Amino acid sequence: MILSIHQPNYLPWLGFFDKIKQSDIFVIFDNVQYPRGKNHFSNRNKIKIPNKGKWLTVPVAGKSEIKNFNEIGFKNDTWKEEHLRLLKVFYEKAPYFKDYYEEFSIELKKEYNNLSDLSTNLIRYFLRVLDIDTEIMLSSDIVGDSITGEDRVMKILFELNARKYITGSGPGSKRYIDENKFKENNIELIWQEYKHPTYNQLHGDFIPYMNILDLLFNEGTKSKGVI
C-alpha cells in the first residue's frame, strides 16, 4: 500500500498530482492547522499571463487565528467571478479552454462550508478529468486533533496499513520527518524529487509552477502524460 498526504491546496501545481498519481491512497490533511504566514499555497496559486505569473487568491476568514483547514471560511463569494473572469481573459485562446472551463466554473460556483471543502472538491474534479483513480480520504475521518506533528502522520499510516509513504523533498517536509521512525516501523520513505516538465503555454516563454488549469487548458487529454 503506497500512501501520500497533503493539505488541501487551492488549484494545486503539477507535482501535487504527480504524488497522488503514484499513490494507492491520498489523504487530504483537512484537520491540520492552517498556516498563519504568507508564503504558502493553501488559498492561492498562479495563472500564466504575458511573460509572468499572476496569483489567484481566495480571501479567507479566520487565518490569523489557530484553526484547521476545515475551519477556515471565506470573507465573501465575489472572488469566484473574478477568478473565472481572469481565467477567461488569459486562457480563452488556449486550445483546450472550452473543454474544461464551463465544467470547472460549475464546480467553483458551488456552495462550500470552508476552504478545505472547496479545495477538496476541486482536487476530485481534477483527478477525474486527468483520469487518475487514486482513492481519496480525509485525515479527519482517520485521526483526531489530539495527535499532532509526525505522530499524526504515523497514525494515519498505521490505520491504513501503508508500507510506503511518499513525501515532498522540500525543506518543510524534511524538517519534520524522522527517517529512523519510518525504518523502525518498516515503512519505506519515498522522497518525491519532481522534475517539472515543459509543455505548450500561451503568453511568451515557458514558466513552470503554474496551477493545474494552465496545463489542462494547453494540453487537454495529454495532461496526465505530461505530469
Short summary:
This protein has nine helices and nine strands. The protein is of the alpha/beta class.
Keywords:
alpha/beta, 9 helices, 17% strand, globular
String of helices and strands: EHEEEEEHHHEHEHHEHH
Quickly count the domains: 1
What is the helix content?
A: 25-40%
Number of beta strands? 9
Low confidence ranges: none
User: How many helix segments?
Assistant: 9
Strand content: 15-25%
Would you write up a description of this structure?
The chain is an alpha/beta fold and 227 residues long. The chain has helices at residues 14-21, 78-91, 97-109, 115-130, 149-159, 171-176, 179-184, 212-219, 223-226; strands at 2-6, 25-28, 44-49, 52-57, 60-61, 73-74, 135-138, 164-168, 188-192. A five-stranded parallel beta sheet has the order 7-2-1-8-9. α2 (78-91) runs antiparallel to α3 (97-109).
